[in-house]
Amino acid sequence: MGARGTAIGLRIAQAIPVLFGVIVISFLLTRALPGDPAAQFAGAMATEESIEQVRTSLGLDKPLVTQFGLYLGQLARGDLGQSVSTGQPVIEELASRLPASLELTLFALILSCAVAIPLGVLAATRPGSWVDQLCRLLVTAGVSLPTFFTGIVLVYVFYYLLGIAPSPLGRLDFIYLDPPHVTGFFLIDAALAGDWETWFGALKQLILPGLTLALFTLAPIARMTRAAMLSALSADYVRTARAAGLAPRKVLYGYAFRNALLPVVTTLGMVFSFVLGANVLVEKVFAWPGIGSYAVEALVVSDYAAVQGFVLSMALLFVLLNLIIDLAYSVIDPRFGTSAK
Amino acid sequence: MSTTRRNFLKTGAAITAMPFIHALPAAAGAGDTLVAVTAQTINSLDLHRTGTNRASYAVAINCYDRLVTFGTKEAPGGGLSYDYATLEPELAESWTISDDGMTITFTLKEASFQDGSPVTAEDVKWSFDRAVTVGGFPTVQMKAGGLERPEQFEAVDAKTFVVKLDRPSKLSLPDLAVPVPFIINATLAKANATADDPWAMEYLHKNTIGSGAYKVTRWDPGQQVVYERNEAWVGGPVPSYARVIMREVPSAATQRALVERGDVQVAFDIPDKDAAELAEKLTVYSTPVENCIHALCLNTNFEPFQDANVRKAIAAIVPYEAIFKAAAYGRGAPLWGGSAEITDTAWPRKSPYDTDLATAQEFMAASAYPDGFETTLSISTDLASWMEPAALLIQEAVAKIGITVQLDKIPGANWRTAALVEKRLPMHLENFGGWLNTPDYYFFWAYQKDHLFNSSNYFNEEVEQLTNETLHMAMDDPEYAPKIKRMFEIAFEDLPRIPLYQPALNVAVNGASGYEFWFHRQLDIRSLSPASA
């Protein structure tokens, strides 16, 4: 336990320079964005002096170094600043939007893994069979259909034509109120509150966007599972295990699959981070109040505080994600040890 | 939390839930609650705050009162519209204008704020002081009506409020009916003000403390605003809907699905394409936006465009009809092929030009550039939905008279600086619209030297003079009409801006009635009622 604790501590310490770099770069990059936020927020009819007033009130009249110093001071107090475009403190918005995105992404990934991993394993054990062809078809379709298109088709079929799905109006229909805030994940919060009606309400809203994203993420996971299983199955230790007369089940799941899991977990990590950013199109179609659309809108209007807050929170998330994946490695394959860098 | 939750479910769900259970007949949609969707996001409940966007003006309109408001008339193309020509009382019971036109005296109605305290002239004064002091857009808009300093406003007694003008102007009263000078509960606001924040910007950002028809009971930024009716409203007839939910849905396809199925009653401000397609199935109001013109601007700082024949040649070659179909899907009003003689003061009006290759070639041959020239045509990426098709069609058309045009797409965040402030784009598309609906007001912004929307750098001494003379002149002054007609003549002769069409505001309605178009282009929920009622 002590060794693992030290390893985690070391990893977190390593993340500090990375985070500082992210802070500097996001600060400089937002300032390099085209457009003048003061002119943007003063409105179309503004006069020169009213733009200057806005510039002063946003603190943009100070030299860049002073602005950066002030920003660091704010960060040290845990304050990410105030977003001008949404009029809310950035930290509050991230706290409400990040869970929305995470809930959707995790739900989609679980859905996608539940289909992709068994499919990949089956395809690998029976290469060339109909399962393999089905896998190939799904993978090609999943990759080639853009998410907003799949989303609109799903809305059209299941909501508009069939009327089975609920209105695509975000996380909860307005007959429900948000469950009391604990984690920000509606499914978890509603379950904690024991409010199953809201739980089902939230689940219903999740299904279509979750399915859309799952279709999209299916491809890399299924392909990677299939490839990793194929190479594991042709490895020497599997041949040895088979020769030793171990049960096929034991060979497949005990040896081949466990070894094939490592690249799959790596892919999962990549897919997760990728999807969290690529969510924005799905969020638009389903009016999902997630982090992707927040960031895009902030970028368009040069809303510095919001963009910086978004980049920083994503960086933190990625550091955390990599840590979890590394820890998962050592659980799956003890040879990695906990000191893995 | 849990008690409000339960209450909400008890009282609200019974009504609200009905439209969402698909098993129920469609008629269940008519209830006490209206659901509207829009792609716009509300970023503040206070219009006066720095950075408050257009969509947020809806809160000022629905939750606050102004002293006066505009009347109602039939809109061109169906439905209702506000009527710029008639002013009606909202919080003011009556008003008188002194003989010299310099003093307006308002008598207030017996009204109360939503917390029960009476509306007094002191509240009005505080609110107006705030609008002219906080800077940014509200202050600029107040200035348009000649309202610039707090000393101009005086609370004589509890029910009498006086506005003193520096000069008589026909724009002053209408400027009190725009969303900006809304009346705030000053006592409550001051109780929440601090030394750093004397105008209670922080408090009003998240709370509506007016006397208006609705109050915001819930605001989830980026998701929804929930309005609840103020039963004690005296500003007008009590609205039909007790609760209105304004939900943000960014995707136009999703908005369409929702309104077509009847799960929402109003899809507000939908794209022209969807409006054209939905119009076959639902009621779609496409009201041409008053005093707004989508125009092709020719910058007179650049050589070829200083030649009047070049400008006329371009005006004669622009494929108006094709642009109107491709960029606006036929929603809005055409602004070409009008008669050469100007007989009235209607604005926007059809220009005397139409697509005619022979005429264009004649003008071009007579110009200093018979062999054509090269230039750039700039558009904003934010407005690409109409600018891009229009620009492509223009590019193709002017090639026929030897003008080679390169398209230049400018990021939305840079557009204002490049087009309006620096005015450095040779040929570009522009879409100014004025809130105050008079031609002189349009000319003031778009045809006078150095004014913001004069992105063509146009300067004509006579237009300067005519605009200055007519801007504050009463519209029934005998001198007014001739001067305005003269302005139109010069504008069509000089052509710094070639009108393309008048854009429309599209609203799809399913299960509600009483939609009214407003110049501020936001949804006024006060006039809406269930369709069956």
UniProtKB/TrEMBL annotation, chain A:
It is a multi-pass membrane protein. The keyword Cytoplasm does not apply. CDD domains: TM_PBP2. The chain crosses the membrane at residues 12-33, 104-125, 137-162, 202-222, 260-282, 310-332. Belongs to the binding-protein-dependent transport system permease family. It holds the Pfam family BPD_transp_1_N. Residues 98-329 form the ABC transmembrane type-1 domain. It is found in: Cell membrane. Keywords: Cell membrane, Membrane, Transmembrane, Transmembrane helix, Transport. The keyword Iron does not apply. This is ABC transporter permease. It comes from Salipiger mangrovisoli.
TrEMBL record, chain B:
It is found in: Periplasm. Residues 1-28 form the signal peptide. Keywords: Signal, Transport. It holds the Pfam family SBP_bac_5. Its main location: periplasm. Residues 87-450 form the Solute-binding protein family domain. InterPro entries: Peptide/Ni-bd (IPR030678), SBP_5 (IPR039424), SBP_5_dom (IPR000914), TAT_signal (IPR006311). PROSITE patterns: TAT (PS51318). It comes from the Bacteria. Gene3D superfamilies: Dipeptide-binding Protein, Domain 3 (3.10.105.10), Periplasmic binding protein-like II (3.40.190.10). The keyword Transport applies. Belongs to the bacterial solute-binding protein 5 family. This is ABC transporter substrate-binding protein. It comes from Salipiger mangrovisoli.
